[in-house]
Amino acid sequence: MIVSGDPSRLPASDKAALLYAQARGDVSARLWRAALGTNDTTEAQAETASACPDFDLDALLSLLAPTTTAHAAPHPVGLAGLSSQDLPEDNGALPDPMHSTRGPATGLGPNDRYSGALNAAAARTGIPAAALAAIVNAEAAKNCDGSWKTGSRNPRSSAAGLGQFLGGTWQGEAERAGTWLHDVATRQGWLGDTGRVLPAARSALLALRYDAAASINATADYALRSVTQLKHAGVAVGEDVANVAKVAYLGHHLGTGDAIRFLRGGLDSRRAKLLLDAQVGAASANQRIAHSGDAATAHRSWLLNYIERNVTPSRFATEGLALAGKSVPAERVDI
Predict the structure, then answer these.
(1) Which of 12-26, 142-156, 182-196, 312-326 has the lowest mean pLDDT?
(2) Which DSSP string do the residues of 96-113 spell out, in sequence order?
(3) pLDDT (tens digit, 9 = 90+) per residue, 272-282?
(4) Residue 155, CB half-sphere, CA atoms under 13 Å: how many?
(5) CB-based contact 202:172 (threshold 8 Å)
(6) Looking at domain 68-316, which CATH architecture does it have?
(7) Domain spans of the chain?
(8) pTM value?
(9) Cβ-contact 100, 122 below 8 angstroms
(10) I need a labelling partner for 215 at 20 to 30 A (CA). Which of 116, 140, 151, 328 fits?
(11) What is the pLDDT of residues 162-218, one digit of tens each?
(12) Interatomic CA distance for residues 100 and 7, integer angstroms
């Protein structure tokens, strides 16, 4: 199907036909990759560039929706029903102890349109922009040119958006006072008297995961929470931004409780198997477990390798990668 002119002006019936045709093509490509054995792991999806369609469903959806950008503001963009009065203000306050160098994120390439949101979220939370870019880069699915897919969705869980937030975690961040997302939920009237998200508002709240700036700001809030809680648990995060990014990613990926257990002695086999299945698929997980001897070892090996290869803030910073704040004295736990 060839589309001429502005696709957003197409009648609803034509839009539906176009979406169906592209979705059918995407599913066909995924089935071929599965048949060839290249669709079972995150690594395979990221590294098989030749399998990417030239024009994928995310790109099509972006054409059918009004043009938006996350470059210039720390707020969600292109969100129907939200005005500037509904969104939290950035007062520039940096919470202690995460006073970062505040260097802007660089080296973003095709993701440069997100630099404004990354830098604003960094200024608000104190988590370095390069660390935030590294976390998002490790989490989000990518188009063939390396650009992040705002419509990223894990088929094995409810994880979605640039930050790959589970539905329950996203709702928890909206209910947690002091977060950017909590401010949006409060102004939209999505929270009840008890501070919990109203059932009728949950769909609208979860849809925010697909907005780039919302996902980036939530990633920053969650990173600050993870680093702070891990420090309080005795993990010596240090002042190096690369280590901060890795520790924050562990908290983002595992949740603080599992991150502490992972650093201190490892997860139990049942939990490790569940997490590994969700990340690489049951078939690949079973192969890794057979090779390693147990689920905890297999999961640990996969996750540490993934972090080492993918959580690389040096790609996104030209200034010194160090924090100005002092680390909490503790026995250092390397990852």
Answers:
(1) 12-26
(2) TT--B--PPP---GGGGG
(3) 999 999 888 89
(4) 10
(5) no
(6) Orthogonal Bundle (1.10)
(7) 68-316
(8) 0.69
(9) yes
(10) 328
(11) 999 999 999 999 999 999 999 999 999 999 999 999 999 999 999 999 999 999 999
(12) 43
